[in-house]
Write a structure and sequence with these properties.
This protein is of the alpha/beta class. The structure holds 2-deoxy-2-amino glucitol-6-phosphate.
Length: 613
């Protein structure tokens, strides 16, 4: 939900800012803008549309100077339609102060009225503009003390923000602050950076300083100072970011999504290999009572991973699991018992609803285990500071809005945890454990094998991309996968797609099936295969085209008689099939999106990190 960045140093700020915005574009892409500070003046340029529009505008203008300090923003609109005027940065009426902001100022209407009563005229419909005018107000009240004015203005804000501020009277610094929105500082040599996410600056430095909520930072070109929002100075160790710069590039692929789909074998392997180093003792121990129930909470794709996790924990460790969508869990009043444990899953570790769910779990004193992909994310840091544990998926940066490798690596973690709990609970023997481990170790290779059949899906998508509706169906693990498959397709192809537990079809959804429908049946649970065959027949009889995703046939059924098309995935234990069966669905979504001329990396109306409610 919006990306912000900033640069101060000796180089030309504009090229850095544009490059960084492109790395952050996944966070929002309906408009963008930057503010440079040069010779005591603010130069602000903004444009509706992709960052390339802003870039073209700057190129055609050829600014006749080099500014060494600037801030920039890529927007996912919340307040006010995407337009040049509503784009960030926003400035005060005197053109002295410029602000970029990621988040939502919840009391902006009250603040706006308060400012209007003091003759302030607003230029945009955004919540952010109040920050610029408020800063101006306190700047005057504080007789030109920039830092104090920022503290005063922040104290008036309710809601979430990561902001960066420039002031013409202070050309040697950028002030930035955070509350409930991510903000990372990159520490360079004679230059410093700020960004919503590290890929913006890792090409220049991998030394990072993570801000906590309620903190403020002043960046100069040779150092940064960290403060509380009441002005007390803080000291913080820096973190070395391992991700290399190339992993945040497309590396020859036409889109990040396709690259990330193809990175799954490596991501799965890295995640598998690191798992044993993770310390889970605090979470396992909990309040001292054995694990009676696990509650898993998450949003979107991570919630689908949780749905698979539920089946895995129940099948392998015989532990009952409740899965709760984070935006529901956070407003519920969960019944908590001793012996409960919570798992919170989030690729970004910054999803507002998921963080709120974790905070509720903390309030209820539940032992927390966070599964996230981003080192130093709010989820990881808060889980640890609350005495919880963290498992990092080693997927590397996931840039495409549609999550792929994060999902499969989340599954790998959940399976490894499920068999570990199975041994502790004595629901699986040591020898079963070795069998499962061996099978999990082979999943990356099998995923690589499966990806070699990419063209089969590409051709299938070329024939089917224009269907009015696509329904995915399955039972048990396959139903959980079909939820994710339907989400992938709707996100990037804009085709109406839904997922059904195959047995539910006849209770209503089958009324929607007609000749303009494609039904994809995921059937990897061998004891239930024949049930799926019947379900496929039922929809085919109503005119639907059908695709079956399953294991190779051992001779009993002639697949050609079951469905119009069949996609075979490499063989594995039924329980582990989701890590493979989702891959053809990811590819199908990708190629349908391409066929329709969409940008699969940046689907309309969506953003990668949903840091607002
Ligand atoms: C997945 O393709 C999505 N774009 C989205 O549903 C995502 O999984 C969700 O917003 C949760 O994000 P998180 O894992 O970063 O918390």
């Amino acid at each position: 939900m919006c990306g912000i960045t900033g640069y101060i140093g000796r180089q030309d700020a504009a090229p850095y800012l544009l490059g960084a915005l492109k790395k952050l574009e996944y966070r929002g892409y309906d408009s963008s803008g930057l503010a440079l500070l040069h010779d005591g003046e603010l130069i602000v340029r903004k444009a509706k549309g992709r960052i390339s529009v802003l870039e073209e505008r700057l190129m055609s203008e050829q600014l006749p100077f080099m500014a060494n300090i600037g801030i920039a923003h890529t927007r996912w609109a919340t307040h006010g339609e995407p337009s040049d005027l509503n784009s960030h940065p926003h400035t005060d009426s005197e053109g002295r102060i410029a602000v970029v902001h990621n988040g939502i100022i919840e009391n902006y209407l009250d603040l706006k009225k308060w400012l209007q009563a003091r003759d302030v005229v607003f230029a945009s419909d955004t919540d952010t503009e109040v920050i610029a005018h408020l800063l101006n107000y306190y700047y005057k009240a504080r007789e030109g003390k920039f830092f104090e004015a920022v503290l005063d203005a922040l104290a008036r804000l309710e809601g979430s923000y990561a902001i960066a501020i420039l002031c013409t009277d202070y050309p040697d610094r950028i002030i930035a602050a955070r509350k409930d929105s991510p903000l990372i500082i990159g520490l360079g040599e004679g230059e410093n950076f700020l960004a919503s996410d590290a890929p913006a600056f890792i090409q220049y430095t991998r030394e990072a300083l993570f801000l906590n909520d309620g903190e403020l930072v002043v960046l100069y070109n040779d150092h940064v100072d960290l403060f509380t929002n009441t002005g007390e100075k803080l000291l913080r160790d820096t973190t070395h970011i391992e991700w290399d710069a190339e992993s945040a590039e497309k590396g020859g692929y036409p889109h990040f999504m396709l690259k990330e789909i193809h990175e799954q074998p490596k991501a799965l392997n890295d995640t598998y290999k690191k798992f044993d180093e993770i310390k889970l003792n605090d979470w396992l121990k909990g309040d001292g009572s054995p694990i009676e129930r696990i509650i898993i909470t998450a949003c979107g794709t991570a919630w689908h991973a949780a749905m698979v996790g539920k089946r895995a924990f129940e099948a392998l460790a015989r532990i009952p699991v409740d899965v709760e969508i984070a935006s529901e869990f956070r407003y519920g009043n969960p019944v908590i018992k001793s012996g409960d444990r919570v798992i919170v899953i989030s690729q970004s570790g910054e999803t507002a609803d998921t963080l709120a769910a974790m905070r509720l779990a903390k309030e209820k004193q539940l032992p927390i285990l966070a599964i996230t992909n981003v080192l130093g994310s709010t989820l990881a840091r808060e889980a640890i500071s609350n005495g919880g544990s963290v498992i990092y998926t080693l997927a590397g940066p996931e840039i495409a809005v549609a999550s792929t490798k994060a999902f499969t690596t989340q599954l790998m973690c959940l399976y490894l945890l499920a068999i570990k709990l199975g041994v502790l609970n004595k629901t699986i023997s040591d020898s079963d454990y070795s069998t499962y481990r061996n099978e999990l170790a082979q999943i990356p290779e099998k995923a690589a094998l499966l990806l070699k059949q990419q063209e089969v899906i590409q051709k299938f998508a070329a024939l089917q991309f224009n269907k009015d509706k696509v329904f995915f169906m399955g039972r048990q693990f396959d139903y959980a996968v079909s939820l994710e498959a339907a989400l992938k397709l709707k996100e990037i192809s804009y085709t109406h797609s839904e997922s059904f537990a195959a047995g539910e079809l006849k209770h209503g959804p089958i009324a929607l099936v007609d000749t303009r429908t494609l039904v994809v049946a995921i059937a990897t649970q061998r004891p239930l295969f024949e049930k799926l065959v019947s379900n496929i027949k039922e929809v085919a009889a109503r005119g639907a085209a059908t695709l079956l995703i399953t294991f190779a046939n051992k001779g009993k059924t002639n697949y050609d008689e079951v469905a119009d098309s069949v996609f075979i995935i490499p063989d594995t234990i039924d329980t582990f099939s989701p890590m493979l069966s989702i891959i053809p669905a990811q590819l199908f979504a990708y190629y349908c999106s391409i066929q329709k001329g969409n940008d699969p990396d940046k689907p309309r109306n969506l953003a990668k990190s949903v840091t607002v409610e």
